[in-house]
Write a structure and sequence with these properties.
The protein has one domain. It has 83 residues and is an all-alpha fold. The chain contains four helices and no strands. The chain is rod-shaped. Helix 2 packs across helix 3. It comes from Lachnoclostridium phytofermentans (strain ATCC 700394 / DSM 18823 / ISDg). This is HTH araC/xylS-type domain-containing protein.
Length: 83
Amino acid sequence: MEMILDYIEEHLIETIYFDEIAKIGCCSNYNFLRVFSFYMEISLTGYNKNIRMSVAADELREYIMLFRRGICKCIMKSVISRL
């Protein structure tokens, strides 16, 4: 299962095909999806969506911090130039 989760995380921005993941898990597509859902307590599609949303949220937080730093620098320059 570790190899499958690594594969999913490495291919987040690409289209992930269930057949390829089932091959890594050495079983049919149908059986793999059932085992994955049982083991992870979430469907493969749901897991993939949650991982992608987590990555997007982290990137958004980073951009917000950069934006805030930029605003603070502009405000400080404006205040300093008025003195």
